[in-house]
Automatic annotation (TrEMBL):
Assigned EC number: 3.2.1.17
InterPro entries given in the database record: Glyco_hydro_22, Glyco_hydro_22_CS, Lysozyme-like_dom_sf
Cited Pfam families: Lys
Enzyme class, spelled out: hydrolase
Keyword Disulfide bond: yes
Catalytic activity: Hydrolysis of (1->4)-beta-linkages between N-acetylmuramic acid and N-acetyl-D-glucosamine residues in a peptidoglycan and between N-acetyl-D-glucosamine residues in chitodextrins
The species this protein was found in: Diabrotica virgifera virgifera
PANTHER family found in the cross-reference section: LYSOZYME C
A Gene Ontology molecular function term of the record: lysozyme activity
Family classification: Belongs to the glycosyl hydrolase 22 family.
Name used for this protein in its record: lysozyme
Signal peptide coordinates: 1-18
Length: 143
């Protein structure tokens, strides 16, 4: 019996501090709580859907991307003892609080906007899936 309890704990514990958003809740949060411009919301929802499937605990072990927005540890989040662009730990991007994720996303977006003229291009899913009209991603969300 103890081994079943331990196994269950090992399976459940990594997800204890994550959140799976629905697209409308995230869209409203980005707009109202984090003050993203309305015109950006559909594209962010598209990116998040394709990057993390709205899971704040998402991690891509091949590309070393973390969290809801799949922020790269190669450039932006901090692996242990190696400060990166956002000065935030990669682990902290995989919890249910997206405040630091949003701060980092803004920094990434602004840097790419300055260098490339389009901040969304920092995410490979933008060109692959989200480069057009993304209003359909927020249909029914009332924003």
């Amino acid at each position: 019996m103890v081994s079943k309890a331990v196994l269950l704990l090992l399976v459940v514990l990594p997800f204890a501090y994550c959140r799976i958003y629905d697209k409308c809740t995230l869209a409203r949060e980005l707009l109202h709580q984090y003050k993203f411009p309305r015109w950006q919301i559909p594209t962010w929802i598209c990116i998040v859907e394709h990057e993390s499937h709205f899971n704040t605990a998402a991690i891509n072990t091949q590309t070393h991307d973390h969290g809801l927005f799949q922020i790269s540890q190669i450039y932006w989040c901090d692996p242990p003892n190696h400060p990166q662009g956002c000065h935030v730990s990669c682990d902290s991007l995989r919890d249910d609080d997206i405040h630091n994720d949003v701060q980092c996303v803004r920094k990434i977006f602004d840097e790419w906007q300055r260098i490339r003229g389009n901040g969304f291009k920092a995410w490979t899913t933008y060109d692959a899936f989200c480069g057009g009209n993304n209003e359909g991603y927020i249909n029914g969300c009332g924003i």
